[in-house]
Amino acid sequence: MWVYLNGRFVDGKDAMISVFDHGFLYGDGVYETLRSYGGRFFMLQPHLARLQRSAGLIGLELPIPLEDWPLLLREALERNELQEAHLRITLSRGEGELGLDPALCRRPTVVIMAKPLARYPDRLFEEGVSLAIVTVRRNLVTALSPQIKSLNFLNNILAKQEASRAGAFDALMLNAEEILTECTTSNFFFARAGRLYTPSVECGILDGITREVVLTLAREQGIQTEEGRYPAEFLADAEEAFLTNTSMEIMPVSTIDK
After folding, report:
1. What is the pTM for the complete model shown?
2. What is the pLDDT of residue 105?
3. What span, in angstroms and rounded, lies between the C-alpha atoms of 21 and 98?
């Protein structure tokens, strides 16, 4: 496996970063994931725009111009001889002395990985997955903006652990106001009475690229859509539900809290 690391492609076993990297020490960094289909990137420009937004929100300037990213991503595919791939861009504050001050780091660390697409089992799409509404609350918007696709995933990990203990595929998280938000790595949709609902960005969710594609396609098909604030009780009358993200695309949900 070839990995892009700070200006060059190296063998995966040689792709190492310093223990003083602030991404490792403090989760100080951002990332973006995307897919390729038949060697073509899906929604590449929106993904790159979101990467730039995430970096800007933590005061980190992209060390590579936006126009140069497609060629690097293309090279990552070609070096790994991939057509159907999962790609991840990781951008950390970089190596520096101990301490939270970003000024301690002289230059960011940049990593691009391209791996064969690990497909979810067909049975999940046929049977649907189970969700558990967990007690772990989504980070407060005023504490950590969900518009930052951050390396710090502890909030989501704790929710995932709780869902696993409950025997569920994933966690459905509420915010501090007991309003539905999203799952640990995906956006959440549900339908009732012919209308498609999804929590609004203001509830404290990441504005997923696939989420936006689904909303656009639904509107083009004449399906009424609504982005709003919904308590968990609103799901009692839901007729169907599904999850969206880049890797799973659209995953049906069969049960919520059993």
Report:
1. 0.94
2. 97
3. 9
**Residues with Cβ within 8 Å of residue 241, at least 6 apart in sequence:** 131, 188, 189, 190, 191, 235, 252, 253, 256
Cβ 235 vs Cβ 110: under 8 Å: no
The separation between the first and the last C-alpha atoms of the chain, rounded to the nearest angstrom, is: 41
Please give the Cα distance from 247 to 70 (Å, whole number): 19
Provide the pLDDT for residue 63: 94
Alpha carbon distance 115, 82 (integer Å): 8
Mean of the pLDDT values across residues 20-40?
A: 97
Identify whether the C-beta of residue 199 lies closer than 8 Å to the C-beta of residue 179.
yes
Q: β-pairing, 85-92 with 40-41?
A: unpaired
Q: Tally Cβ neighbours within 10 Å of residue 86.
A: 18
**Catalytic residue list:** 149
Q: What is the helix, strand, coil percentage profile of the chain, to 5?
A: 30, 35, 35
Name the burial class of residue 132, with classes exposed (0-12), middle (13-18) and buried (19+) by CB atoms within 10 angstroms of its CB. buried
Kindly give the interhelix angle for 69-79 and 44-57, rounded to the nearest 10 degrees.
Answer: 120
CB-facing half-sphere around the CA of 151: CA atoms within 13 A: 22
Query: Strands, DSSP E only, in 25-142?
Result: 29-37, 40-41, 85-92, 109-116, 129-133
Residue type, 80: N
pLDDT tens for each residue of 170-209? 999 999 999 999 999 999 999 999 999 999 999 999 999 9
Residue type, 13: K
Mean pLDDT (whole number) for 224-245? 97
